[in-house]
Amino acid sequence: MMRNITIEELAGFREALLELCIAIDFSAYDTIDLCGTGGDGKDTFNISTLASFITAGTGIMVAKHGNYGVSSISGSSNVMESLGVRFSNEEDFLKKCLEEAGICILHAPLFHPAMKNVGPVRKELGIKTFFNLLGPMVNPSFPKNQMVGVFNLELARMYSYLYQDTAIKFSILHSLDGYDEISLTGNAKIISNTTESILKPEDFGLSKLTRQQIEGGKTIGEAAQLFKDIIAGKGTAAQNNVVCANAAMAISLMKNVSIIEGLQLAEESLHSGKAAKALDKLITLSH
Q: Residue 165 in contact with residue 192, Cβ under 8 Å?
């Protein structure tokens, strides 16, 4: 927090964590991870996790890397756990989840034993550290595609610089008003392997939202209830639009379609119940 991290440090930490991680071999699958750095201090509901299930509902395989909230009330792992998803680092179980539900949850602490001593310290500090910056980069299944949300522009540049050196097909998102995802509260910067652009809510054919419309719950229980409502198609128009816009980015990256087409596929996945089916299947497999 005292000074900004350098590219070399970020690359070094990433390399060290990936070297020490319990790796999962998904090379036979074409997977994507939708993951934000967190640490944007915006306390939104679990947008990228919902977008992951919507993406899975369109037939794309999602290897979702996640963790408990450190600087937020409820991280993706908090919600998944309270909904009854079992965390595991057994490759066979994870492959079964991918094949049958279209999505598997990679709960970071199970794959990064080196982090075990760091977790409690991070919790006590309660501020974002460079570990927030690393989360999306250290998925233990080494997905071939990644959609990463980051909380500032400088970090978006660093990520794109590091990802350019890999074989990963990527899309890095940052909402210019400070969100680590497409918030629809303003314009967003998008950096991919070949292009950089600014996306406005109108580019999705959607109207601009206010901060209040995408706020999350005040407790893990509230966050889980919000998650259940939205995935069941009972979310507000604003909530549905923001999760579908984020899923649209992943879908357009994977299916090489326009973001408008991506949005249509995302909306179909949510409203037809396919996204909810992926979650139900995951919960069933967990038991």
A: no
Output 47-50 pairs: Cβ under 8 A, ≥24 positions apart: 47/181, 47/214, 47/242, 47/243, 47/246, 48/76, 48/149, 48/181, 48/246, 49/76, 49/79, 49/80, 49/227, 50/227, 50/230, 50/231, 50/243, 50/247, 50/275
Structure tokens at 114: 């080196």
Digit-by-digit pLDDT tens for the chain (287 residues) are 778 888 899 899 999 999 999 999 999 999 999 988 877 788 888 999 999 999 999 999 999 999 888 767 788 899 999 999 999 999 999 999 999 999 999 999 999 987 777 778 877 887 777 777 888 889 999 999 999 999 889 889 999 999 998 899 999 999 999 999 999 999 999 999 999 999 999 999 999 999 999 998 888 899 999 999 999 999 999 999 999 999 999 999 999 999 999 999 999 999 999 999 999 999 999 99
Query: Cα–Cα distance between 267 and 57 in angstroms, integer?
Result: 10
CATH of 27-286, one of 3.40.250.10, 3.40.1030.10, 3.20.20.220, 3.40.630.10: 3.40.1030.10
* CA distance readout (Å), 80 to 83, 213, 277: 5, 22, 15
Contact yes or no for 266/251 (Cβ under 8 A): yes
Q: Confirm if 105 and 82 have CB atoms less than 8 A apart.
A: no
Angle of helix 220-231 versus helix 274-286 axis, rounded to 10: 130
The identity of residue 181, as a single letter, is E
> In this structure, are residues 18 and 143 in contact, taking their beta carbons and an 8 Å threshold?
no
- Quote the Cα angle for 76-78-84, to 5°: 105
C-alpha–C-alpha distance, residues 224 and 172, integer Å: 26
CA dihedral angle for residue 137, residue 68, residue 48, residue 190, rounded to 10 degrees: -40
